[in-house]
Amino acid sequence: MSLLPILRFPDPRLKKVAAFVTRIDEDTRKLVADMAETMYEAPGIGLAATQVDVHKRIVVIDVSEEKNELRVFINPTLGRSEGVQIGEEGCLSVPGIFDKVERAERVTVSYQDLDGKERTMEAEGLLAVCIQHEIDHLNGTVFVDHLSLLKQARIKNKMLKQARVTA
Ligand code: GNR
Ligand code: NI
């Protein structure tokens, strides 16, 4: 397994729309293992392939307390969504920034598992937030895009300055 570098906002590669996965092979399984390791090490509760510059529709999530319930979503799509929740979000691609985002409270997500089997599940609360946040990444959207233009501009400035100092 290996840790993968995570793209930082406002890297334009975070805006790419990821492609559907047509074949789940050894490379896919290796990528999922590396993504999981990268997510746990960060640490984060989710990671989309987009964030590690792989533009395929693959997401890993673990919202459990013990960090022992890895969920893998290949080609996830949202079905029904119900209700509204507003929660503080963060993103491994926008370190140090946290702000409130409105999301559906409950979602139905269809996806393929690592065996290629089609599955559908319902999620609520933090898991539902995380699924919506990760599917956004696959579509080239970062949580910052849900904030006001003023906040977006401030965050972009802060990130660019930070990158300059770090480089
Ligand atoms: O680790 C993460 N925490 C988090 C908290 C609230 C809402 C969404 C998230 S996802 C984030 C990891 C990440 O950036 N996934 O893309
Ligand atoms: Ni994120």
What would you say this structure looks like, in words?
- The protein has helices at residues 26-41, 125-138, 149-166; strands at residues 46-48, 58-61, 71-82, 85-89, 99-103, 106-112, 118-124.
- With 167 residues, the chain is an alpha+beta fold.
- The protein has one domain (12-166): Peptide Deformylase, CATH 3.90.45.10.
- The strands form 2 sheets. Strands 1-2-3-6-7 form a 5-stranded antiparallel sheet. The chain has a two-stranded antiparallel ribbon with strand order 4-5.
- The structure holds ligand GNR and nickel (II) ion.
- Ligand GNR is lined by residues 44-48, 51, 89-93, 129-130, 133-134, 137.
- Nickel (II) ion binds at residues 91-93, 133, 137.
Topology:
Elements: H1 26-41, E1 46-48, E2 58-61, E3 71-82, E4 85-89, E5 99-103, E6 106-112, E7 118-124, H2 125-138, H3 149-166
Bound molecules: ligand GNR and nickel (II) ion (NI).
Supply database-style keywords.
167 residues; alpha+beta; two-stranded antiparallel sheet; 7 strands; binds ligand GNR; binds nickel (II) ion
CATH class call: Alpha Beta
Low-confidence stretches: none
What's the architecture in CATH terms? Alpha-Beta Complex
Order of helices and strands: HEEEEEEEHH
Helix content: 25-40%
Largest beta sheet, briefly? 5 strands, antiparallel
Number of strands: 7
Q: What integer is the average pLDDT?
A: 98
Oligomeric form: single chain
Short description:
This protein is an alpha+beta fold. Helices cover 29% and strands 26% of the residues.
